[in-house]
Amino acid sequence: MPSPRFPIDEAYLIGGWAESFLWGCFTFLFFTTLYTTHVKNKRPVNFTISAMLMLYLLATAHMILALIRLIQGFVAYRETIGPARYFAQISTRINLAKDYIYITNLVLGDAVIVWRLYAVWARDIRMAIFPVLLVVAEAVTGYASCSLELFPNARYETVALWGTLMYSMSLVTNILVTAVVAFRIWYVSRSARLAGLGGVNYTKLLFLLIESGALITSAKVVEFVLFQYVPADSAVHGMNALYIVYECMPQITGIVPTLIVWAVNNGYTQPDEYHMDSTVDLAFATSTQSETTAVPSSSTFSFLDAAKVGEATVETMV
Asked: Which residue among 25, 35, 219, 299 has the highest number of C-beta atoms inside a 10 angstrom radius?
């Protein structure tokens, strides 16, 4: 049975087109979110907004380098080595720069969801230790995999091993953190209702977090599976469909957290039972802390960034 084939030049061409489309969507969403955050809602700059800005800049730089490579491969070197062999040279400086940006974008995107976990669990550092270690391991393995390409005699098996570890760490981080954050919000909301503290139901917020986590996780699963089929000898006509998803990931990693901020700014995550001028008592306290904070339900509720030690005043998502 013949092995699956997807030419590398076609993969990069389709990936570049898809990335440029997603970058356009990301650009519109990014500036719309900035407007609703700072002009409409007068929100201050915090970690999430700063990370969103960095993700957009990294995604833009990645898209620019991808466009330059497409021009070089299909125009500048078309009559010499040809597009396929040009794209197969993954150790060129411009491709390595693009890969370093990709890894930085990936690590920063996972750092955002770990910050979300830390905030939701009342800034309890114990809950964030293991996810932080996963992100650090992801960064180390990712940069190591990319840096090995700088050595002329680097073995593909070694590079692939470090790359596999990077994908695995990122995948585990996304699944674990999304599940723990969703459980925390569900548990606190349920406890408040059972205690008669307002009966607030955050179903919309739960679905938003779960669906956004599922979107990134699905993309990373596809990317991980396709990575296993990349030809070991950089064959130009092997199974190179990985590069379609690979080119798009910096945009997807930035779009999803930005979309969450946009949804909060526009009121799509308001509690299901929402009444003006009423008061809801909620606390994201640890087991040794029982203080609660009365929060006017007319404010925008936050479970991602607004958390204090021992309690979270649910005021803003961004």
From this structure: 219
